[in-house]
Amino acid sequence: EIHIKEPIEKEVNPHLLPGELLLCEASTVYKYMQEDGSNRGTYGKLVCTNFKISFLDDDSASDDNEPQFKNKIVGENDITLQCVDQIYGVYDEKKKLLTGQLRKYPEKLIIYCKDLRVFNFCLRYTKEEEVKRIVSGIVHHSQTPKLLKRLFLFSYASAAPNNTGGRNQTVMFETLEDWRDELERTKGNVKYKAVTTNEGYRVSEKLPLYFVVPICISEESILKYEGRGIPIWCWSCHNGAALLKMSAFPKEQDDSISQMQKAFLDGIYKTISKPPYELLKTDDLSSSLPSLQDIQTAYTRFKQLFLIDNSTDFWATDVKWFSLLESTNWLEIIRRVLKKAIEVVECLEIQHTNVLLIEESATDLCCVISSLVQVMMDSYSRTKSGFQSLIQKEWVIGGHGFLDRCNHLHKSEKEEAPVFLLLLNCVWQLVQQYPPAFEFTETYLTVLSDSLYVPIFSTFFFNSQHQRDTNKSGESLKTQSGPFRFLTVWDWSVQFDPKAQAFLNNPLYAEKPKPDKSQRKTARFKHQRQLSLPLTQAKPSTKRGFFREETDHLIKNILGKRIGKFINSSDEPPNSLREFYDSWHSKPVDYHGLLLPRIDGPEIKVWAQRYLRWIPEAQLHGGGTIATAAKILDLMEEVQSLQVKMDEEHSQAVSGGVHSVPMLRNSARLSSLFPFALLQRQSVKPALPTSTWKDLEDEDDLVKRDDEFVDLSGDML
User: Fold this and answer.
1) Which residues form the Myotubularin phosphatase domain (predicted)?
2) Which residue, 106, 196, 541, 631, is most buried by CB atoms nearer than 10 A?
3) Which residues contact 164 (CB under 8 A, 6 or more apart)?
4) Do residues 612 and 712 touch, judged by C-beta distance below 8 A?
5) How far apart are alpha carbons 69 and 566 in whole angstroms?
6) CB–CB of 169/434 below 8 Å?
7) Model confidence over 21-45: pLDDT tens digits?
8) Between residues 686 and 602, which one has the greater pLDDT?
9) Torsions phi, psi for 589 (to 5 deg)
10) What whole-number percentage of the chain has pLDDT above 90?
11) Residue 236, helix vs strand vs coil
């Protein structure tokens, strides 16, 4: 049975951005409500442009149902072409993957998105010609290889009004001064220097224009092997120890070349191991961490758990959830990466040793580990502008191949790997373990992960600074020739209005106290004990890999606390590392000092907000961390409003309409999927109950039961 909503009579036209062109459309398309076991849905128009696929129904024309967290570029029923993961057609109830030319056109279209949304469209009531046009158009524009200049990024940049945009204090690392300032900030300028050797990209197109090397490294050395074998500076610790990275020489070469390269490396190592430099420890990440192929395989398996078509699938997989999650190996990879970062931190902090990370190109796992180490050791990297500057430095300017790793051009699946997503998953573990230490929220990390697929920002759409610079020149549509003015993703006002941006900032961020050195320590510790999560006890823990006493009360929050692979005895950290780890966790947390993630088995959790936000069965009505955050925002705005009133009365001056109104009056109605999913969605149980919930008498029991699908990412109030 299909519950039909009358087809729309008034014409609804898509909202087009500058440079956006309508390519094909189909009327009388029926969109199923994904969260519903029945066939309920709505009629509308399905359109495809050079930027997005969009479904328009009569709700699209009215602003009555405006979500409180609205993205100004990508709406709820919009899918950017880069966000399309896979497209399936349904033929006689059988699903078939759609690629390339189609001989037969499907009666249903299922679009799986990289942000884990699933769209179901029924084409049974659409004219045959329109079905052919829209299906072949969507498959062609989202799945076939394309040229870089055909990305919407260029169409938008040439048509949009010149907008220099606010940088929000983010350091872009595009100038020599930016690098010198960073050296000064970290006190690394005594032993390291910013070099201009690569101006005009004469050393290598893979390296940035400017970078930092040890002072003792000569220009000849940098030029000799196109920058390979040269230690490049990432960051300096407070004690003078530094984190460095280096792109390795290719392994398969003839002996004479290998001997020369080995001699060159030995010379470099000797030079930077002498005073004033600290002892050097090298770490080849290609042998000590999973390969990019392993990471891609694990993530592909992992995301399948969340790309759920219907309610029945959700309940069917729930019985095997733990084993399915375990078999993906994704949480284990996160744990291994965090453990590696802790090892590097111990070398820098305790052993006062320089650490040189080595990788073939030094632009993948090197970026992950160096970024994590800085987030853990440098409180500046835990502020919003500091974290954005870190991504610019290590990833955007550092030469991470976003274009290839995200497969934006559909050139080669062999190059695809979710390396940047891996970093965000690791940072999320820290954010949810130590919320007051971060100026940004998990919602910030979620929208940052979504921005990977929005091609109006240049940030995540080039492989290197050289590629970006060489593609900057172009003809404007206004017949003025000149370089493209690309937007940066760090200008959040492009995507969100100020009300929505409030969700990106952590209201409970423990700002750095103004130094009164005599009193600072005692005051800070008192503050930490009130705000910090339960600390690991100083006494030796029971068997590792199982829930400890302090986590017993969290066991009930099942989905958020799924167990990662337990640490087995063969994978135990070395004694010194374990002592360092246990010793740190036995002390009160300094939110502006070193942070170490808890990595024992159940401590590594699923980033629920990102992965479960479109699944209504996993929501908690009126609860979850987002409801807590919304309530805090309410209270803060109320306090600010009262402060304004007090100031007015004090000065006896009347200033019209200054009072701020709390944003979220009805926070009790929020679900844990807010702000991404609609409020008050209902989940319908499948016809045949499964063993996990057949004893439930009605749907409301899902909310009442503490141990069934409750808060996904944090503790409930």
Assistant:
1) 173-611
2) 106
3) 485
4) yes
5) 38
6) no
7) 999 999 999 999 865 556 789 999 9
8) 602
9) -85, 130
10) 62
11) strand
Alpha-carbon gap, residue 419 to 400, rounded angstroms: 9
How high is the pLDDT of residue 676? 80
Cβ-contact 52, 73 below 8 angstroms: no
Residue 436 tokens read as 């007051």
Highest mean pLDDT among 68-72, 92-96, 264-268: 264-268
What six digits make up the tokens of 26?
């189909």
Which residue carries 């490294």 as its tokens?
A: 217
Residue 418, preceding peptide bond in cis (omega within 30° of 0): no
When mean pLDDT is compared across 7-16, 150-159, 160-169, 548-557, the lowest value belongs to: 548-557
- How far apart are the C-alpha atoms of 437 and 429, rounded to whole Å? 12
Angstrom CA distances, 660 to 124, 627, 635, stand at 50, 20, 12
Which DSSP category does 90 fall into?
Answer: E
The terminus-to-terminus CA distance of the chain in angstroms comes to 41
Q: Tell me the HSE value of 239 on the side-chain side, using a 13 A CA sphere.
A: 14
Angstrom distances, CA of residue 267 to CA of 35, 129, 270, 357: 63, 69, 5, 18
Give the span between the Cα atoms of 27 and 31, in whole angstroms. Answer: 11
The full set of domains in the chain, from first to last, is 22-144 (2.30.29.30), 176-474+483-504 (no CATH)
How far are the Cα atoms of 96, 253, 388, 492, 609 from residue 497, in angstroms, in the given order? 40, 55, 19, 8, 21
Which pLDDT value is given to residue 58? 75
Six token digits for residue 700: 């409301």
What is the full DSSP assignment across 249-261? Answer: PPSS--HHHHHHH
Q: 633 phi and psi, to 5 degrees?
A: -60, -40
Helical axes 419-433 vs 442-450, angle rounded to 10°: 170
pTM score, whole prediction: 0.84
Determine the Cα–Cα distance for residues 404 and 415; give it in Å rounded to an integer.
Answer: 6
What is the tens place of the pLDDT at every residue in 625-684? 777 777 888 888 888 889 888 988 888 654 444 444 444 444 445 666 777 865 444 554
Q: What average pLDDT does the structure give for the chain?
A: 82
Bridge partners, 31 (sequence order):
42, 121
Neighbours of 680 (CB within 10 A): 12
Q: What is the dihedral of CA 569, 574, 578, 580, to 10 degrees?
A: -170
Residue identified by tokens 């796992």 is 365
Per-residue pLDDT at 469 exceeds 90: yes
Total residues belonging to the chain? 717
Helix then strand then coil, in percent of the chain rounded to 5, is: 40, 15, 45
Q: What is the pLDDT of residue 485?
A: 87
Q: How far apart are CA 72 and CA 141, in angstroms?
A: 23
Give just the sign of the alpha carbon dihedral 153, 157, 161, 164.
positive
Whether 172 contacts 392, CB under 8 Å: yes
Residue 235 is predicted with a pLDDT of 98
